[in-house]
Design a protein that fits this description.
single chain, seven-stranded parallel sheet, binds ligand 0WD
Length: 261
């Protein structure tokens, strides 16, 4: 039983795929909980065998009927997930892409020093995987749908230590606009959520992340950090019919930091 608060089931009957739960601190987990609380059924993936032991108990908690491995680097794994969704559900209402990757030397180095291979790998895992997910979801979203990804303010302006992830997130945000334009006629909405800094495993790879957290807490208009439940509530709203004309947006959820940072 995951429901801690009374809910009105805004996602009752909806079926979604969430990619990017690594553990209970993941942004994707905050989204999964909030969406399940609103009545959605959720397919969950885990990166590999090592990750499975952290992800499977969480998937059980939200009664996920589909729990499968997905490393977007591995040919065929994404297709297998969508095949299973097609077989079990025959349709899909939403997807959440909440993954990113860059090699340590690129994450900690200057953009100007980034290798071609490192650049391509970061773009492939963090951006093109979203495009691939969208392509496979499109035919299953016969009654429209919503596609979400996760970005960061460092894609819009220079943020110290964000390094190669800045250009990567800029590309992800541009992809959101183009996918939204292309899929809009099929009533498929595409948006990105842009949270303020949250301590997660991926975040711990960013240099001086503590300083980023402190700065956000001190300077955001609301003087507060956001957490994965805040992001989850926003995501659950965006995939609901209540958001049915919201598309092509970068939705900040950062206590207002982006207007002062
Ligand atoms: O402050 C933050 N934490 C913010 C994160 C602020 C704004 C945006 N974001 C973004 C991240 O850039 C990312 O796109 O949110 C997304 C989710 O990140 P997260 O929740 O902060 O981090 P985490 O819990 O680590 O989940 C990301 C996961 C990976 O975890 P690990 O810890 O193993 O790096 O992305 C997955 C993996 O589970 N991932 C992959 N999944 C499939 N195939 C792959 C891959 N090749 N590589 C990483």
């Amino acid at each position: 039983m995951v429901c801690e608060i009374a809910h009105c089931g805004t996602l009752k009957g909806k079926k979604g795929l969430i990619v990017g739960i690594a553990n209970e601190n993941s942004i994707a987990w905050g989204c999964a909980k909030a969406m399940r609380n609103e009545g959605a059924e959720i397919a969950v993936t885990y990166l590999n065998e090592k990750a499975e032991k952290y992800v499977r108990p969480l998937a059980d908690e939200i009664e996920s009927p589909i729990v499968m491995p997905l490393n977007v680097n591995n040919d065929g794994e994404m297709e297998a997930v969508y095949d299973e969704i097609k077989k079990k559900w025959g349709k899909l209402d939403f997807i959440l892409h909440s993954i990113a990757f860059a090699r340590m030397e690129d994450l900690h180095g200057r953009v100007v020093d980034c290798s071609k291979d490192g650049f391509c790998e970061a773009m492939d895992i963090s951006v093109h995987s979203f495009i691939r997910m969208a392509k496979l979801a499109e035919p299953l979203m016969t009654e429209g749908g919503c596609m979400l990804t996760t970005t960061y303010y460092g894609g819009q302006q220079y943020i110290e230590n964000y390094n190669i992830m800045g250009p990567v997130k800029a590309s992800l945000e541009a992809s959101v606009a183009y996918l939204a334009a292309e899929l809009g006629p099929k009533k498929i909405r595409v948006n990105a959520i842009s949270p303020g800094p949250i301590m997660t495993r991926a975040a711990s790879g960013i240099g001086k992340f503590d300083a980023l957290l402190q700065k956000a807490a001190a300077q955001a208009p609301m003087r507060e950090l956001v957490d994965i439940n805040d992001v989850g509530n926003m995501a659950a709203f965006l995939v609901s019919d209540r958001a049915n004309h919201i598309s092509g947006n970068i939705e900040f959820i950062d206590s207002g930091y982006h207007i002062v940072g």
